[in-house]
Amino acid sequence: MKGFDYFQPQSLEEALELKKKIPGSRFIAGGTDLMVQIRGGELKPSTLISLRSIRDLSSIEINGNIRIGAMTTVTDLIYNPDLEHKAKLLVDAARRLGCPQIRNVATVGGNLCNCSPCADLALPLLVLEAKARIKSLSGTQDVPLQKFFEGPGKSCLSPDQILTDIFIEPVSNNTKAVFLKKGRVKMDLAIASVALLLEMEEKTCRKARMAAGSVAPVPLRLQKVEVFLEGKALSPELADLAQRMASESVAPISDVRSTEEYRRHIVGVYVKRGIAQILGWSLD
Amino acid sequence: MTDFRYIGKRISRPDGPDKAAGKAHYIHDLKRPGMLFGKIKFSQHAFARIKHIDTSKAERLPGVKAVITAQNTPEIRIGFLRDNFALKKEKVRQYRDEVAAVAAIDPDIAEEAVEQIRVEYDIQPGLFSPDEALQKGAPLIHEKDSRGQARIDNIVPLKFHHESGDFDAGRRSAKYFVEGKYSTPLVQQSCMGTAGCIAEFDMNRNLTLWAKTQIPFLAQRDFNRALSDMGLQGKNTRIIVPTLGGGFGTGLDTHTYEYIAVLLAFRTGHAVKILYSREEEFAYLSPRQSSEIRILQGCDLNGKLVFRKVEVLQDNGAYTSWGATYPSVMMLPATSLYRVPNVFFNARLVYTNNTYCQAMRGYGNPELTWALESNLDELAEEAGIDPYELRRLNCNLPGETTPMGLKISTCALKESLESVAKRIEWKKKHKKGKSRGVGMASLVHVGGGARIYKSDASGIFLKLDDFGNVYVYHGGVEMGQGLHAVLTMAVAEALGVRPEKVFINPTDTSTCPWDVGTHASRGTFMAGNATLLAADKLRNKIFELAIDVYPREVKKSLEKYRKKNPDYQPPDIDFKKSARLENFDLKDGYLSIKDGPSEPWLRLELGRFLRAVHFCSKGQMLFAEAFYDPPNELPDFEKGYGNISATYVYGTQGVEVEVDIETGEVKILRLTAAHEVGKVINPEGLKGQIYGALAQGIGYTLYEELKTEKGQILNPNFKDYKIPTIQEMDFPIDLDFIEIPDEFGPFGAKGIAEPGLVPTAPAIANAIYDAVGVRIRDLPITPEKVLTELKKLGPSVK
Amino acid sequence: MKKEILFSLNGIEVSVFVKGHERLIDVLRNHLGLTGTKEGCGQGECGACTVIVDGRAVNSCLYPALEISGKNVLTIEGLQSPEHRLSVLQQAFVDCGAIQCGYCTPGMILSVKALLDSNSKPTEKEIREALQGNLCRCTGYVQIITAVKQASSQLQELP
Asked: Is B154 part of a structural domain of the chain?
């Protein structure tokens, strides 16, 4: 492993200036993905520019909307008392990310910017229709998270941009959500995962949002299934149909972790089980 | 059952505190003055001719002290078939072949230098399965053998064969029979402390090697031979074994990286440390041998087994190491698990361009038992007999000799079957469906050493000092399994001192007596028996001297006592009568007369006794040695006959599972293990060994697999090679240790390090079959495989 | 080019000069000679390198050395009591058979310490969740859980 320089800018401007100035430089958040990739030789940065010392990147603000700073650690996200109530889906997914040592250091922004097709925090944020705030030296823009992921390991960020915050709008009281993740063992990368949110009016589904991980080059919104469920009275039979539709609408691959058929199958099963869990049905 | 003072009781393991404090020093932590760091350049091609190696850039890198290849070093052949080389000269035959190595002042420079080495290859299409390698016209992995004679095919010239009884008659007499083909994958030992060593020559050109080894003396032999190859005939190797971060079989062979470290140390004149990173450990260290096993078993109308045919095919990889000898252990369950009169066993090993394999816990037994015990359940189904009843009907009994010539002394197979059936609630839960099921499987393994070499012996030295301390020198290796704790208890018990006075010395070929190696679950059996012999000698020496010394010393004690207690009237003791060899006892470090009066001045502290023996004219220091050679024999593996061990262990495991029929996931609800142990020596240590083995068994059954493509390991990291975490062991486990003291076992004990993972896989597979009617024959039993089979069964699955 | 880091290590202020790419584990093992912290994988998968930074367990193999400035670090060496005694937690590991080869032990113990410091009466489920990032190949984990439960109840009895 070749050596690299390491800088610790105190402000966003300083960070962006350094990035502009130093060729071959990369931003580092918690480092739990990046340090592994560097060690494995997949990445060979000349310099790492740390975002840890930049104030205001790691705060959580809740007043109506929720703003989560990109450098918020996963542990801080889990233990924020308000998020537990206001964005339970996100907290549930965060609990399934890695282990305590990883969660204590990994960040929300880092998890998203790593752009893994199974990023644990991407699924709930997609389903919560989060927006990503991106800053550069020339300005700020808010981007729907759906547009953030372009491919495995590739986000929409250009080299001179930093993800600074995630915005979530509050969900209505009739909204329930669930996060299901399948690994080879309990603590694992997802070989398939689903985040599912339903807003119900009695038996009718007013709003459905779902996202799946490890079944496409990016974390994927299952919009076809969402549209299918919305406006309908939900029943086990409908859930079965949603299962089939979900399986058919994803494009997983076979790799060292699992097979295309199995991932496709699990996504469908999890969509069905997610619906059942939210609505309190027992599946026998 | 004898009343023991320490055996069977709780002990704080002597190496525990240092390990808990982070003060134990593993190879990773050791430094030598002026030490350099070695790194190896590996091939990255499975089969190629080496055209040219350019090391010039690497040599010029500041901080690099040596760059070696097969071109500038003497040829060192390794492996018991001598078909491997420390550095590869003309050809690489596997993805992980070593072509060059660097020694530098720090690991980063060494790594950079390795990257600067350019190798030109003429790549050949490789052979990646026994089938491919056996095709007519397939290229030869090795064109010549180690003696230079031309080879004609890719078959490894090792024969493992057994035929007993009248196989054809047995076959004809079977009413029911089932054939099956089973396989096990490459599995990684995954020690938490990776492989590594430090090699250093002194100025007399003798070598010291700090090694992660389980075979210090066989390693000494191997490295002395290498020194000869290096032009250092007559020079000696000293092997020192530091604290090890696990073993599980990885230390049973000598490895290329060790020879490379030796070559670098000799070239540079400095100590050289080579340490494998985790990726290197996965990608470049030999894993557990994979297997393909065809088995055919038959029984009569009543379920009595009448014949068994086992054919083993192993992908030997490019070179030969201990993976090739798994069939020698496979022969044990093949011939001796359950009573079967007519047995046919044969193994074929084929060279390929895949990785070669070494020992791992169980050494072929888990593989064969996987096939045998899965197939037995299939036979039970075919015959319409309950699998538990079928096993009980055919179970081995004490005192029998098996077709392989194994002399079964004690045998608790019947007891272990019954124990498991009861604890797993067999009658209540078997064949109940609803996606839940129970399964069981048994094992037989060596419990009294295993003679696989000219000697299966083990020596020990016990040395006493002036303070009543006992220093133990024993060639067995502590790799976490608790050998030092058992040795401490054995010495304390057999000699009659307190455990705190027992000090186990580091394993070092220059100080410890010979031991063939810590494998085959033989550690406790050998150390214990050697201790009993030596302690007995030492006690005799002490008691002989005590005839004179004891009366003298206790009289001095009495005078002292009387000065403090002037009114004291001592009892009348005729020392001439009572101070005799057979009347003495040494207990808790105090010498006394058996059944004598309990006066305090009659208890002579051992240290005081020893000083009296030492500090006088014609003084002595006391010392004893023993070399224990167990009553077993080296089998003829071509005939498949020989009583390989002094005693055997049987056992059974039962599992209850629940299968999620929508996802194929298997959840273990509970596990029960009944193992015969002869005698529990260290209760917490024994439990730890079984729990640890069960975890490895579960990993091996459900998810562990090194995936390869064209000879390359695709998942060389913990991210994609999953071993059980604490979350996966989240079900109740109950253990039943069946104690039937064995006449050859120290304190009655048998070896138990490996059995814990031998029957786990078939027990789980049998439970899965009971739950959902799905039979998986290829490990690991992944949800993908279960789901595929469930889908084939269709909607009938409940 | 080396930069200075100043941090508190086991209660004592320490200054070390490090290169940009060095990790906390390199500082501990190579610069400071504290070899109790083990490198098991270097990839944040095994937890053998676990240390506690500002009260939270982290994998020191992934932690950039320069980030440790101003922080409080606790390693296995910092656990033992004065006069060469093991802490209650360490002793529980020794007593309960939770140690075999010992390579995972320092990291495992520190993960437990981080747990017990924030949750003195953990349930078995919470213990498993806290330790799921610490791999052990020897023990099968059962006696580790026993040790944690014993330590937890002993620590609660302390005045």
From this structure: no
Rounded to 10°, the helix C124-131/C105-118 angle is: 130
Q: CA of A31, closest CA in chain C: separation in Å?
A: 7
A60-168 classified as CATH 3.30.465.10: yes
CATH class entry, domain A5-50: alpha beta
Angle, to 10 degrees, between the axis of helix B683-702 and the axis of helix C142-157? 130
| Complex ipTM | 0.98
pLDDT at residue number A283? 67
Residue B349 and residue B240 share a domain: no
| Mean model confidence pLDDT for chain B | 97
From the candidates C73, C76, C84, C103, which should be mutated to test the interface with B, based on the most B CB atoms within 10 A?
A: C103
* Mean pLDDT of the region B337-364: 98
Confidence of residue A1 (pLDDT cuts 50, 70, 90): low
Judge whether residue A200 has pLDDT over 50. Answer: yes
Per the CB < 8 A criterion, the answer to whether B669 and B436 are in contact is yes
- pLDDT one-digit tens code per residue, A150-167: 999 999 999 999 999 999
A282 reaches B (C-beta below 8 A): no
Instruction: With a cut of 80, say whether residue B567 has pLDDT above it.
Output: yes
Q: Where in chain A are the domains?
A: 5-50, 60-168, 175-279
> Can you give the pTM of this predicted structure?
0.97
Query: In the prediction, which pLDDT does B798 show?
Result: 44
Beta bridge partners of B627: B459
Minimum distance, in Å, between the CA of residue C45 and any CA atom of chain B? 6
Taking CB atoms and an 8 Å cut-off, how many pairs form between chains A and C? 79
pLDDT in tens, B572-623: 888 888 888 999 999 999 999 998 888 999 999 999 999 999 999 999 999 9
The chain C residue lying nearest B30, using CA atoms, is: C35
- Closest residue in B to C99 (Cα) is B16
- Residue B639 placed within a domain: yes
Residues of C in CB contact (< 8 Å) with A are 1, 3, 19-21, 23, 42-44, 47, 50, 53, 56-59, 61-64, 66-67, 111, 114-115, 129-130, 132-134
| Of residues A6, A47, A101, nearest to C64 (C-beta) | A6
CATH number of the domain located at residue range(s) C88-157 in this protein: 1.10.150.120
Number of domains within chain B: 3
Instruction: Name the residue with tokens 């134990």.
Output: B24
CATH match for A175-279 among 3.30.70.260, 3.30.390.50, 3.20.20.80, 3.30.420.40? 3.30.390.50
Q: Do A4 and C58 touch (CB under 8 A)?
A: no
- Check if the beta carbon of residue B193 is closer than 8 Å to that of residue C103: yes
List the single residue in B with minimal CA-CA distance to C93.
B20
pLDDT grade, residue A284 (50/70/90)? low
Contact B108 A3 (CB under 8 A): yes
What percentage of chain B carries pLDDT values higher than 90? 96
Residue A109 has pLDDT above 50, yes or no: yes
Per-residue pLDDT at B47 = 97
Beta-carbon contacts of B748 under 8 Å, excluding residues fewer than 6 positions away, are B678, B679, B739, B740, B741, B742
- Mean pLDDT, residues B463-472 taken together: 98
Question: What pLDDT does B742 receive?
Answer: 95
Q: Which residue of C has its CA nearest to A36?
A: C43
- B56 with B118: CB under 8 angstroms? no
Most A CBs within 10 A among C38, C51, C56, C115, hence the mutation to make, goes to C56
Provide the pLDDT for residue B568. Answer: 92
Q: Are residues B330 and B425 in the same domain?
A: yes
- What is the CATH classification number for the domain harbouring B557? 3.30.365.10
Note whether A185 contacts B: Cβ–Cβ < 8 A.
yes
- CATH value at residue B234: 3.90.1170.50
Mutate to test the interface with A, among B280, B665, B696, B787 (most CBs of A within 10 A): B787
Q: What is the CATH number of domain C3-78?
A: 3.10.20.30
C-alpha pair distances (Å), A220 with each of A149, A194, A224? 9, 9, 11
Are B173 and B154 contacting, i.e. CB atoms less than 8 angstroms apart? no
User: How close A122 comes to chain C (CA, Å)?
Assistant: 21
> Could you tell me which of B525, B796, B574, B461 has the C-alpha nearest to residue B681?
B525
Three-state secondary structure call for residue B541: helix
